[in-house]
Amino acid sequence: MGIIAKPLGWLMTWLYGIIGNYALVIILITFAVKIILYPVYKNQILSSANMTEMQPKIQEIQRKYAKDKELMNQKLAEFYQEENYNPAKGCMPMIVQMIVIMALFAVLRNPMTYISNEEMYFAIHESFLWIKDLSQPDLWILPLLAGVATFLSQWLNKLTNPTMQGSSNMMMTVMMYFFPIMILWLARSYPSGLALYWFVGQFIQIFFNLRLNQIRKKIVKEKTKKAKKAIK
To answer: Rounded distance, CA 138 to CA 136, Å?
Structure first.
């Protein structure tokens, strides 16, 4: 984590020298991460829109090779390759966010290792709104906000991405309810700065998902119109 935590410590120190507020530094970094990842989210939604057209073929493969799971997975992989669809792309935003949050945790846990500015050592302990010390856990309010924002983000993501719907994705449905509870529990144990980063990130994601859902619906509508014209 040092490879990422060190530059993050420099960035936080530089931003703090300009803004002068540690919480705002975290919020600004969160916005920056989300904005950088927005094209990835959008590409994911475009892929999910194409997935609507691919569903009949996928279901056909699943029915045809239902008794041979290995061959079915092979045929699905070949079909995805033909359609230039990569299911793993959906994991990229979460991976990037987890890398950032782990680096931020490392900075908060060992500030003297990753921060060279003594003023920043004290900044980590600044208060923000009702939180007296951002280096210490907030037991309820921020964890609850983080948990609720995570649930709403996951729920909207499920509506946005048709590949996450249906009984075949029961695991994803379980995660939609389990993950927010896990976030709430972790936020009560970790520094408030981490919980603030996650809450703001998920809050932004809610608006991203609303916007991306509109884009997906528009694409699907256009594709449906083209398909009807082709039939005529």
So the answer is: 7
Tokens read off for 127: 């208060």
| SS3 assignment for 137-192 | CCCCHHHHHHHHHHHHHHHHHHHHCHHHCCHHHHHHHHHHHHHHHHHHHHHCCCCH
C-beta of residue 203 within 8 angstroms of C-beta of residue 149:
yes
Q: Which tokens go with 11? A: 């960035």
Q: Which residues contact 146 (CB under 8 A, 6 or more apart)?
A: 183, 184, 187, 195, 198, 199, 202
Tell me: the pLDDT tens digits for 114-169? 777 777 778 888 889 999 988 888 989 999 999 999 998 888 877 666 555 544 45
Q: How far is CA 32 from CA 29, 91, 112, in A?
A: 5, 19, 25
Contact residues for 86 (Cβ-Cβ < 8 A; gap 6+): 47, 80
What does the angle CA 206 – CA 210 – CA 216 come to, to the nearest 5 degrees?
135
pTM of structure: 0.74
